[in-house]
Amino acid sequence: MTAVMANRNFRRLWTGSAVSMFGSEVAELAVPLLAIGVLAATPGELGTLRTAQFLPFLLATLPLGLLVDRRRRLPLMVGADLGRFALILVIPLAVWAGVAGIELLYAVMFLAGVLTVLYQVADFALVPELVAPDQLVDANGKLAAAQSANEIGARGFGGLLVQAASAPVAMLVNALTYLVSALALHGIDVVEAARPASSRPSWAELTAGLREALRNRFVRALLGEATTFNFFNEAFVLGLMLFAVRDVGLGPVQIGLVFTAGGVGSFLGAWFGSRATGRFGYGRVLLITLILGNTAPVLVALAGPDPVATMALLCSVFVVMGVGIGIANVHAVTLRQAALPERLRGRVNAAYRLISWGAIPLGASLGGLLAATTSARTAMVAGACGMVLATLWVAFSPVRRLTSIDEAARLSHVRSAAPRPRPGGST
What we know:
427 residues; mainly alpha; Growth Hormone, Chain: A; 79% helix; globular
């Protein structure tokens, strides 16, 4: 057992996160398949559904980031899990009662998305309080590996569950995982750092995280990369789902296997990525893995109508893509945590997600529009080509020259402590 996994509190956080991520990965496959198969959603409606699911990252991140910086993070996470359990449970019950409609799905996924924002912002800020500073890379690697392992098992399981039982049953499983996660988190015993006294939030407080994210040269580069990737990846995935189901004729199990292949690659990258960093340096490894992960999807342009050949191609692309993204994500999260002051972590992470995850509903709208006006294949290929551009943010930034996380933290803190020049003079 590694040092970080010997930490009881971190084990409980890891367990809760792993279980809830399992349910979320099942839902990633079950929700669109439920919309397409049960509710007969059009490409435009599928795009609107994805927009509703991720719109909270545009609307709620700044105020929730401030809330996280003013409150104990753990109770917020437990409450978010319990709320998501209750909301997601509505979906299978509504289908079985014969009252489900696409509008209900919009509303439930939007509200669950708000709670997901709260959970993720609080989780990012809580991890550094549970582990020692020198364990952050390992802790984030273990959390990312759990995510990747869930992509391996959960999406394949989700495909089997949808095909063997139904999409509503898969959503029921998703709801129950949030309940299990809440119980695991409830057992964490930690004395969180004191938070500032509550007062009416000012505009300056709400936007402090946004200003810091844009000011910090390392975070700014990662933010640009993540935003560009998320925007085009959403169009890519939406087009891929429609192309695979309606043009190629792949079933839930086959689609689940494609995403499982991506999870295999991501797991390998997340689990073993820190070894590459020690040998080749932080910035160099991050840039190479971004090139790998962001460029591989372009190969989907070779996909044709043959199901076997398309399956082989998609699985290969997703493995390579997963390896690159798995390594890059661990390093990006750790850099953001190390380069930011504790008092602003919640708000900066909220601002980060406001912009980067806020691009997802916009990408979903683009993907739905392209699929509706041209073809699902066009949306898929256009999204894949756009993802290549994301790497440029890091390629032309100081991040690529970093040798270690410690160097990034030192340079960020020195820059933060430096006096700012006054208008009309120098310091």
